[in-house]
Design goal:
The chain is of the alpha/beta class and 307 residues long. It is 35% helix and 18% strand.
Length: 307
């Protein structure tokens, strides 16, 4: 059953990782109707100012420091946890990505729903076959981020425990390659092509992923919140169809008049595409066509590159 979205208008929404590429557009979108509390460390004054300009309320806190979470109001309705650490420091990354999830859920134990943004990076690499939610987990991102996959797996388990122990309706969504006007992984590839930098790809070509446009994130997240249960709803969160990295780079090259230069490397991330059966049953299919999404990304970030 496709869930009707929760009504965010008039509610209190906490979004963590608010200065990140994924969370910042969510803050801007939801602050139009809801009272949004945007949690981040705010090491830079300009980040706080940018959040305030959206109409959201900055909350300076760090998930690795539970005492700092006292700044979070006690009557939050919905939590969207986008906070993530990718420092390659195992203690820091466990503290934010795993333990911090538990501290946050304890602080927001009265929330109507909690959404944990996880990653398809928790899956074990197995080539181009799509992963479903029951597939084996593994350290697939170790070559690029030594602690990312394992700390996010740990975070999922902490989230599951806290949801059941504290009776918090929860959804864990495994996100795959978000992108949009803010940029994303494809934008990095575009900049590499512009600068003549080779793009490392896994030799088991083609390397399939699922691009998810931020517009679809914004539309689907209220439905993911509606799907939350204390027994935890676990789902992939990705766009359709699967697309190879090689294909999206070639398309970006056509738009920008540049040519990708691929170099095989076993250290590159291999295919991590997803089975969307469960997601589609919960929140429906995504809508943004990846060709249109990538063109819009260039228009927003580097319009001078469009041929």
């Amino acid at each position: 059953m496709v869930h009707e979205p929760v009504i965010l208008k008039g509610s209190k929404v906490l979004i963590t990782g608010a200065t990140g590429m994924v969370a910042r557009p969510l803050v801007a979108a939801y602050a139009k109707d809801a009272t949004v509390y945007a949690l981040a460390r705010y090491a830079r004054t300009e980040d706080r100012r940018a959040v305030e300009e959206t109409g959201a309320r900055p909350v300076a806190a760090d998930l690795s420091e539970p005492d700092s979470l006292s700044a979070v109001p006690g009557d939050i309705d919905y939590v969207i946890n986008c906070a993530v650490a990718r420092t390659n420091n195992i203690e820091r990354d466990y503290a934010v990505n795993a333990e911090g999830v538990g501290f946050l859920m304890a602080r927001c134990r009265d929330a109507k729903a909690f959404l944990q943004i996880s990653t398809t990076g928790v899956y074990d690499y197995r080539g181009p076959d799509p992963h479903n939610e029951a597939d084996a987990l593994g350290d697939s991102h170790r070559s690029m981020f030594a602690t990312y996959s394992i700390s996010k797996i740990a975070g999922e388990r902490v989230c599951m425990f806290a949801a059941r122990e504290l009776d918090i309706p929860t959804t864990i969504a495994r996100l795959c390659v978000p992108y949009g006007d803010f940029g994303g992984w494809p934008y990095f590839h575009l900049m590499m092509m512009k600068n003549g930098t080779p793009i490392e790809v896994h030799p088991d070509r083609p390397n399939y992923f699922n691009l998810l446009h931020i517009d679809d994130c914004i539309e689907k997240i209220p439905r993911l919140l509606a799907a939350a249960t204390p027994d935890v709803t676990l789902t992939n969160f990705a766009g359709r169809p699967r697309i190879s990295l090689e294909d999206w780079c070639s398309y970006l090259g056509e738009l920008a008049g540049v040519t990708p230069h691929f170099v095989d490397s076993t250290n590159a991330l291999g295919s991590l595409c997803t089975d969307l059966t469960r997601m589609n049953s919960l929140v429906g299919e995504t809508h943004v066509d990846w060709h249109d999404g990538l063109r819009r990304m260039i228009m927003a970030r580097a319009p001078e590159l469009l041929c």
